[in-house]
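agent: user wants the structure for Acetyl-CoA acyltransferase from Nocardioides kongjuensis. delegating to structure tool.
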Amino acid sequence: MNTAVIVDAVRTPLAKGKPTGAYADIHPVDLHAASLRAIVERTGIDPAGIDDVISGAVGQVGEQSGNTARWALLAAGYPESVPGVTVDRQCGSSQQALHFAAQGVIAGAYDVVVASGIESMSRIPIGSQTLGRDFRGPRVDARYGGALVPQGISAELIAQKWNLSRAQLDEYSAMSHERAARAWKDGLIDSQVTFVNDLHTDETIRPGTTPEVLAGLRPAFRNEDWAAAYPTIDWKVTAGNSSPVNDGSAAVLVTSEDAATRLGLRPRARVHSFAVVGDDPVLMLTGIIPATHKVLDRAGLTMADIDAFEVNEAFASVVLAWQAETGADLEKVNVNGGAIAIGHPLGASGARLTTSLLNTLEQRGGRYGLQVMCEAGGLANATVIERL
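agent: tool returned. relaying tokens verbatim.
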């Protein structure tokens, strides 16, 4: 059985996913191409030797439709002989792309493969692919008795179930901004990014954010209808303790150990273990709890063995519920900031987490890292990498 190794990982700084964002004038294909081009330039690999480009994207409509991976690799200057495919596991799309890449290498189907992700939320607004469409169908709605809700309501239900206070959510979110701002200031991010359009930091980081500032924000998802449907909710989820919408891309070069040796490449980590789970689609975002247990069981590791965690901060309540159930030390979680500060460009976030995790392990001298991603519909991906 082959070993799948990570040679390099790179991302763009993340921009505001709004018409005023730094990447709003960049076509998603070209934004994606920036990371695909950078992974080749950084490693010196001949792109003609890439067996496949597997990319994640959530809003696969408009400018991100038509198998956007294929057009991005051509925009990046790859030879026409390089194939590409676009996958959708919602927010975990590019983490799933990494899993598929590693699985292909382990099975012997690939020697060299790029796993990447893209989301331009300024040009393809969130929900564009499902807007006005009954994408679940009547049988699913009947099964759950009309209980399926948007993610913001799920985040509220999670805060309620785990008895998380508004203060806890805001304190965690302020810490995310503080860590992200400090990491950029200390030069910990520069080596893992390719700069685009003169953006030299993640655009949604707010240095100096405090819990007191965040406490002044109104609940983002409360309205008369939801308040009537859920009269026991003490509405706590705000724009400040949720991830923003963003534009960005990321790419990870995965090879077999033999291919890395043959090509003169230095592996930085191996893809140790991976798992995907389904969970309650009402709470929706709690799949990261069983996914963490499952990937650790497969890896033969415990929480104590993990030196760094990257847990996608879709909402502060999601991370804090996960922490309550797993006992994770928050000093090891998202140590250079998470999505609440950095941003969450849906299809790119999985590869962004890998980029952050790889660099954190190297900066801290850690051995094992675990990343986990909550996903719409009650799904979650988890990955363990081992620094080499």
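agent: one observation worth passing along. The radius of gyration is 20 Å.
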